[in-house]
Amino acid sequence: MFIAAISPRSTGKTTIMAWLLHALHERGYQVTGFDADESEQLYRWWEARPDGSYPFEVHKAASSRFHAEAPALLPAGHVGGVDCGHLENHAGIGWSVLRVADLAIVACAATNSDVERMDELPMDFFINQVIPKRSDGRAPETWVLLCRVQPSSVTAPRGIRKSLVDDGWNVFRTEIPAIQQYSSTGEGTPIRAAGSHFDALVTEMEERGLISK
Question: Is the dihedral of CA 112, 208, 195, 182 positive or negative?
Answer without folding.
Answer: negative
